[in-house]
Design goal:
Layout lengths: L2 H22 L5 E6 L7 H13 L9 E6 L7 H10 L4 E5 L2 H10 L5 E5 L19 E5 L2 H15 L5 E6 L6 H15 L2 E6 L3 H9 L7 E3 L3 H5 L1 H10 L4 E3 L2 H5 L4 E5 L1 H16 L15 E6 H6 L6 H6 L2 E3 L1
Parallel strand pairs: 1-2, 1-3, 3-4, 4-5, 6-7, 6-8, 8-9, 9-10, 11-12
Antiparallel strand pairs: 10-11
Length: 325
């Protein structure tokens, strides 16, 4: 081979080395994020998810990508959105604070790992074989909502012991509606109080539910992504109809709701981010135990109580994690 030809060949080979090295570089893992509501009401929670990912060593745009699919309150779109993520394909799917999204993801894939945050027992929903060893492709965090709703009902009853009944607002389209109703009925029997179960999905149905309540009649709002997204509207309806209302999230109490008791959801989303990071590093969801939330918050809004003409006992205030004055 002539010297000139050898140099040309060497130069051509060198030119291909960076391309070959680039082709062999592992692609950035992609997280699929599926939710039944929209981004805006979940922005702070999503910040917690990103913090969890960062603790696990992943930063969006640097060494991990996230494909978001928000159903905007239209649960019927979830199967299609889940299918999109599966066909992408993604390395893991996160379905946080959205049981409908979790069920849609589980129906769409039995192989891609799923990290959920739900209020129900995942074993009863068929998502896991057991809490300690899920055994399938899904794991995450379960707040065991039956205990929480009983606590919320008890607090509402403690504040208004003379109320003849307590209303319960549920979304019948959410899989947790029946378990919540059953848990509340059991708690109501213990507390010797009658429940008035109100089912609503649309804005018009929610408005009619509030209109059906007498002024001063207490209401417990069930756990549901669409109710969380509508929390400002629910607080406004509560004020309009003078309804003392218990919520499952502190955001509603901060927005003017009377009381809230539930998990610190932002902290739970952070924990879910850590779990997603562990799976991206090779952990198997089948072997990761389903966790429970570690932080719970009880919030009382005394400004709202005053507007409603209610005197919150000092004993209840003393037990609260936050009292808004």
């Amino acid at each position: 081979m002539k010297r000139r030809e050898f140099i040309a060949l060497l130069g051509g080979a060198a030119a291909t080395w960076p391309l070959a090295a680039h082709a062999q570089k592992p692609s950035m893992p992609v997280i699929g994020f599926l939710h039944s509501a929209s981004l805006e009401p979940n922005a702070k929670r999503l910040a917690g998810f990103h913090r969890g990912l960062q603790q696990a060593g992943f930063i969006e745009g640097q060494n991990v990508a996230i494909e978001f699919r928000w159903a905007g309150g239209q649960n019927a779109r979830l199967p299609e959105l889940a299918a999109e993520l599966v066909s992408r394909p993604v390395a893991v799917i996160a379905t946080l604070s959205s049981t409908p999204a979790t069920r849609a993801a589980k129906a769409a894939t039995s192989t891609i790992p799923i990290v959920f945050l739900i209020a129900e027992d995942p074993v009863e929903l068929g998502l896991a074989a057991s809490l300690n060893r899920p055994g399938g492709n899904a794991t995450g965090i379960s707040s065991q909502n039956a205990e929480l709703v009983a606590k919320r009902l008890g607090l509402l009853r403690e504040l208004l012991p003379q109320a003849p009944n307590i209303g319960v607002l549920l979304n019948p389209g959410n899989p947790n509606a029946k378990p919540i109703s059953a848990a509340l009925q059991a708690a109501a029997t213990t507390l010797a109080v009658q429940l008035n179960v109100l089912e609503a999905t649309t804005d018009a149905e929610i408005e009619r539910a509030y209109q059906s309540l007498k002024s001063g009649s207490p209401l417990l709002v069930g756990t549901d992504p669409s109710f969380f997204a509508r929390r400002a509207a629910l607080v406004a309806l509560g004020a309009k109809h003078a309804i003392p209302t218990m919520y499952d999230n502190r955001e509603a109490a901060s927005a003017g709701g009377l009381m809230s008791y539930g998990q610190n959801t932002e902290s739970s989303w952070e924990q879910a981010g850590i779990t997603v990071g562990r799976i991206l590093k090779g952990a198997k969801p089948a072997e990761l135990p389903v966790m429970q939330p570690t932080k719970f918050e009880y919030v009382i809004n005394l400004k709202t109580a005053k507007t409603l003409g209610l005197d919150v006992p000092l004993a209840m205030q003393a037990r609260a994690d936050e009292v808004i004055e």
